[in-house]
Amino acid sequence: MSDGRHDVVIIGAGTAGTSCALECFDIQLDTVVFETDERPGGQLGEIDHSVRNVATGSFRNGSALRDSLEESAAILGDRLHLSHPVTRADLGERWIEVDGARIRGRTLVLATGTRAQQLPAAEDGAFGGDVTYHLEARPARFVGRDVVVIGGGDSATLDALELAREGSRVSLVHRSEALTARHDIVEQVRHEPRIEDLPGWQLDALDGGDRLEAVTIVRPTDGQRRRLAAGGLVVKIARVPRTDLFRDQVGLDRAGAIVVDGEMRTSRDGVFAAGDVVAGSYARVASALGQGAVAARSVLRYVQGRM
């Protein structure tokens, strides 16, 4: 691992980071990438369903797409450093620290993605597996049982619809005053009699022995509490941007995501960002691929003194 100065140092080899690295490599920039995991692909391995909205092909699931991305990334050779977490970063001076070595870049690209969060009252797998954050992995478990779904976005509402169609009565609990899912999904929820929409509520506690028996929810606006009989709890809440390394060094939005302009420039000179870690990003593989390529173009222009 060279501790010299590179044209671009990329943090994260998920979809956006790998896309940026491949483009930078193709346009002959001196590129290095550092990834915490032992494989590139980020959260692709967490996608249990088929991926059909990437124009280059249809994939059985996220793992299959990850295999394809890994095959493409092989061309990077020793420029791609897997199982090498970044422990420190100075965006003003444009260096990162990995394994005690300081790696400098003329530019930095932050592609650290997001991480899942868990509710303190709902540990994944609790009550013999009646609490889950991944319904896709065990859909048959909850067939016909009363289920509480936490969340109001696309994933939560789609899970609620799937459960209802399999005969479950579903309580859809979310903190917002209105569902944030796509309008077509919201319309389906409204016309599904087995789903009760509970806006403005949040999870408070779980009750049961070996198996889940009930869920208590609370409405923060007035402190009202409600107990819901439940044989299952499915949690689908927003992921959290991985920006702990960069706090107070770059402009972030209220959710902690990195603010960029149309060229993927951050508030720091010579520092760019791409993928799910970006504020307002569209959580789709195709979007991450595109942002990675745009970031690479901006890096090239910056290195050439045209930005």
Taking the alpha carbons of the first and last residues, their distance comes to 29 Å
Q: SSE order in H/E notation?
A: EHEEEHEEEEEHEEHEHEEEEEEEH
| Helix content class | 10-25%
Give the integer mean of the pLDDT values: 94
The coarse overall form would be: elongated
Main traits of this protein?
307 residues; alpha/beta; 22% helix
Mind explaining what this structure looks like?
There is one protein chain. The chain is of the alpha/beta class. It contains 6 helices and 19 strands. The protein has helices spanning 15-26, 62-73, 126-129, 154-165, 183-190, 285-303; strands at 5-11, 31-34, 51-54, 57-59, 80-81, 88-90, 95-98, 101-110, 114-115, 131-132, 147-150, 170-174, 195-199, 202-208, 212-219, 224-229, 232-235, 240-241, 271-273. Strands 1, 2, 5, 6, 7, 8 and 19 form a 7-stranded mixed sheet that branches. The longest helix is centred in the last third of the chain and has 19 residues, at 285-303. The mean pLDDT is 94.
